[in-house]
Amino acid sequence: MTRTRTRTSMSSLWSIILLLLALSAALCVRRTAADTDAATSGSSGDTDPDASRRARAAATVAELLSVHNAARQAVGVPPLVWSAEIAAYAKDFAQKRRGDCAPRRSPLFYFGENIVVGKGRHLNATALAAPWLEEGKWYDYETNSCAAPPGAGCLRYTQVVWRDTKEVGCARIVCDSGDTLLVCDYFPPGNYGTGRPY
Q1: How far apart are alpha carbons 79 and 159 in whole angstroms?
Q2: Could you give the CA distance from residue 166 to residue 14 in angstroms, rounded to a whole number?
Q3: Phi, psi (rounded to 5 degrees) for 186
Q4: Which of 10, 23, 79, 99 is the most buried (most CB within 10 A)?
């Protein structure tokens, strides 16, 4: 009889423990769902410290796409879409250039690439990409040639408007010098073969 009572007591105890664990798990799930809803809807009383950073990043992405796609629209090629994966690669490479802020080409030739360094830390994407687009004035479509002065070229412009390029991802950082580095990578890459860019 004692064994039966002990088994019954142990069984009751385990039932209570399992019930408490189930209730605790249910409360955690509800709390997590509520936290997720509040974070995504912005209805929480707490302010999201990263919301401002994410908003600035989204505005920069929109501006970079706008700059590229306005140039592409002007020559009649389809717009580019943003690639977070390509942007992550560009960011990784840009971070490696933080110390010297040198506009050197990355070692991965799987992408097309444009790099520019702007003086100062408060340059927007439009100002940074302007030198790439200005190269368009030297490009002659009829002869598929570039009449740029010595030390200049058209390759950054032709990469922006390359007809077969579909995706772009960029990173903008402030270097240790206080200047701004913008790296944009493109897929598929442009400036290959002898064909016209558009």
Answers
A1: 13
A2: 60
A3: -130, 145
A4: 79
The per-residue pLDDT for range 22-70, each reduced to its tens digit, is 333 333 333 333 333 333 334 444 578 789 989 999 999 999 999 999 9
Q: Let me know: does 87 contact 171? Beta carbons within 8 Å.
A: yes
- Do 138 and 147 touch, CB atoms closer than 8 A? yes
Q: Tell me the DSSP string of the chain.
A: -HHHHHHHHHHHHHHHHHHHHHHHHHHHHHHHHHHHHHHHHT-SSS--TTHHHHHHHHHHHHHHHHHHHHHHHHHT-PPPEE-HHHHHHHHHHHHHTTTT---PPPS-TTSEEEEEEESSS---HHHHHHHHHHGGGGEETTTTEE-PPTT--SHHHHHHT-TT--EEEEEEEE-TTS-EEEEEEEES--S-SSS---
Query: What would you report as the CA-atom Rg of the chain, rounded to the nearest whole angstrom?
Result: 27
